[in-house]
Design goal:
Beta-galactosidase, Chain A, domain 5; 2 domains; eight-stranded antiparallel sheet; four-stranded antiparallel sheet; 17 helices
């Protein structure tokens, strides 16, 4: 995929580096619909040449110049004109085009802006074929042009493009005839609305509000500095990406999964990202919890896989979802979002002591626990499982590709399947929730949860431990046969605390061995397994978020040196990817290859953006209560961090931690 992305809330613009919308995935999107599918600027029928650009979350500036142009016996030399395109998203898409003449003679030129809107559903953009679509019409108005689509869902979607000044000609191309004297410049303003709004903001008004929005979002994030300048740059990029990937559906800010395909509420991804960011922006956890609780399952629906108490997997607003052509309007096909929801609430409470939110969501807690017992445990054996489905995802944990879950023979596992880290999530949900319940004098709930957690831990050891491999199985298939493959998921079980202390040692040794550890991070599948491929999606690639929770798990069990090594691998990979970790990358061994990107990986991706901040969380000692620094860091300062309602400045050194209330 070739695009640059700017985004604010639900409005997302994907362009090529020159600011044009020309290829298959590019466009202006909102509500899972592409409202602008062509936006191409030409100068005298030629494409201007790119000089440079900069991007800042919801704004991008692009510098261009003219190619050499001949007018009969006259010639406009290359570089005579400076063309600055500024594009921004706020309540609409805004563009400001400034053209300045640096030629020694007057210049006359034609500027064309070609546009179209296909109103394609996001799943159409991704390749879905539809036998029938709605109807589109174009209506030029006094100072604007409207493109309207009436969908099969009877919704009318409208793209209104306003110009100042108005073009000299307009149809499916807006044409401006421009005359500039030497050193003279001209400016064209464009506003593209994708929904009805009472505000017709100017460029300056919209820019000021967008900047204010960003400043407000960052105002409660602590200032983090370290002795490692490369780490500082990656942290800055990470927080900027997380700002870009924040939405609000009325219940508070929450992270969406990633661009371009998953800029929507996404149960598992939103929760895990909120956990990664919990010490630095707990409001993301609050918004995620309230949003997911609002859409918690209430009924039983086989097509969408909704069940009472179940936390949703993803939520879409496009035409295909509205019509039921895909089940993703509100789709619940995930086995892990519900225990993760409970973990997030409990961990949020431990960090903030926000008793009010915990009690507000207590009914959602009870529904989630009931789901885990009545629906999540399909056969009453104490494990959470997912079954096969006719319409939704085949595999319903984070490795959700069709071929991710297999036996050592390479044979795909048959559902129902109980996945290893999902049992860890259930364990951590119960232990962490029990601690919160005890703190709130919910004694009976705490006792029940602790008892269930201990029973689960014993069963887990009995059924998932592979004595011959000194490791845990990826899962149990329909016949309770272990999926005896070496996997990264077991590493996440360290984070959850379900692994026994004595078995944590061989697990850690295997995780850090060349079989799993690529040197750029821990692979999803061991190199000796039948389905291993370093270029696969889930069978040998490296996923940063997966590694971030393995990193926290290593710290929880006291394996600081291994955590330090893993953290440095992730930081080095981020630097190689221009300070932004993608969704995943290939699992080639470091000695033989630089980190190699996966062709269709989302970037930015929320839980990848949360990975490097998670390193700071680990060094703070969140998992075991004792801060530590790796050998590649001398110090960390964290100024303005809020812990249990009180702000502090922290300075973490090799031999001590300095804490100052603010």
């Amino acid at each position: 995929m070739t695009y640059t992305v700017i985004k604010l809330n639900d409005l997302m613009l994907l362009t090529n580096p020159s600011g044009n919308i020309k290829s298959s995935e590019q466009g202006l999107y909102t509500s899972d619909t592409r409202f602008l599918s062509t936006w191409d600027m030409l100068l005298d029928s030629e494409e201007p040449q790119l000089l440079g650009r900069k991007i800042d979350s919801a704004y991008q500036e692009i510098l261009l110049t003219n190619p050499t142009v001949h007018y009969g016996d006259k010639r406009l030399p290359h570089g005579a004109l400076l063309i600055k395109r500024e594009q921004m998203v706020y309540d609409a898409m805004y563009e400001r085009i400034t053209i300045e003449n640096f030629h020694v003679e007057p210049v006359s030129m034609k500027l064309d802006l070609q546009f179209s809107a296909d109103f394609a559903d996001i799943f159409e953009v991704r390749g879905a074929k539809r036998p029938k679509r709605g109807t589109t019409k174009i209506l030029p108005e006094q100072s604007s042009v409207s493109l309207t689509y009436t969908g099969l869902d009877e919704m009318e979607r409208n793209t209104r493009i306003s110009f100042n000044p108005f073009p000299d000609n307009i149809a499916e191309t807006a044409t401006f005839f421009i005359d500039l004297k030497p050193k003279e410049s001209t400016v064209i303003y464009i506003r593209i609305h994708t929904r009805d709004t009472t505000d017709d903001l100017t460029w300056d008004e919209a820019f000021a509000r967008q900047q204010q929005h960003k400043e407000q979002w960052f105002s409660d994030i602590p200032e983090i500095k370290t002795s490692n300048q490369a780490l500082n740059k990656v942290l800055e990029q990470s927080f900027n990406d997380l700002y870009l990937l924040t939405n609000n559906l009325g219940e508070g800010d929450f992270p969406v999964a990633g661009t371009p395909w998953f800029a929507v509420p996404f149960g598992r991804d939103s929760i895990l990202t909120a956990l990664q960011m919990l010490p630095f922006k707990p409001e993301l956890a609050k918004g995620t919890l309230k949003t997911l609780a609002k859409y918690q399952g209430q009924a039983t629906n086989k097509y969408t896989e909704e069940q009472p108490g179940k936390i949703l997997h993803e939520m879409r607003q496009g035409e295909m979802s509205n019509l039921g052509e895909v089940p993703f309007g509100r789709y619940y096909g995930t086995v892990d979002a519900t225990p993760l929801f409970l973990i997030l609430l409990a961990e949020y409470y431990h960090w903030t002591k926000d008793k009010e939110l915990f009690l507000e969501l207590l009914p959602a807690v009870n529904l989630s626990l009931e789901w885990m017992q009545e629906y999540g445990d399909l056969d009453g054996d104490g494990f959470l499982e997912y079954d096969k489905t006719d319409s939704g995802l085949v595999n319903q944990y984070w490795k959700d590709s069709d071929d991710s879950t297999s036996h050592s023979s390479g044979e795909l596992a048959q559902a129902p399947i109980a996945i290893v880290e999902v049992q860890g999530y259930a364990y951590l949900a119960k232990t962490s929730l029990a601690k919160a319940a005890l703190d709130l004098d919910l004694i009976d709930l705490a006792k029940t949860l602790n008892k269930e957690a201990e029973e689960l831990k014993q069963k887990f050891e009995e059924h998932f431990w592979l004595e011959d491999k000194k490791f845990y199985a990826l899962g149990l298939d329909a016949n309770k046969k272990p999926l005896a493959v070496i996997n990264s998921d077991t590493g996440q079980c360290l984070w959850t605390g379900i692994i026994s202390t004595e078995k944590a040692k061989p697990v850690t040794e295997k995780l850090m061995s060349p079989e799993l550890n690529s040197g750029w991070g821990i692979r999803t599948l061991g190199t000796k397994e039948q389905r291993y491929s370093p270029m696969s999606y889930h069978n040998g690639s490296v996923w940063p978020h997966d590694n971030s929770f393995i990193f926290l798990g290593l710290i929880k069990y006291g394996y600081h040196q291994e955590a330090s090594e893993l953290g440095k691998s992730l930081l080095d990979a981020a630097i190689a990817f221009d300070n932004r970790l993608p969704e995943l990358y290939a699992g080639f061994q470091r000695e033989n290859s630089p980190p190699v990107g996966y062709p269709v990986a989302c970037s930015p991706q929320a839980w990848s953006a949360g990975t490097i901040p998670t390193l700071i969380q680990g060094f703070m000692g969140i998992q075991e209560g004792t801060p530590f620094l790796p050998d590649w860091l001398e110090w960390i300062t964290i100024n303005g961090i809020t812990i249990k309602g009180q702000k502090y400045n922290l300075k973490i050194l090799k031999d001590k931690v300095e804490t100052t209330p603010v």
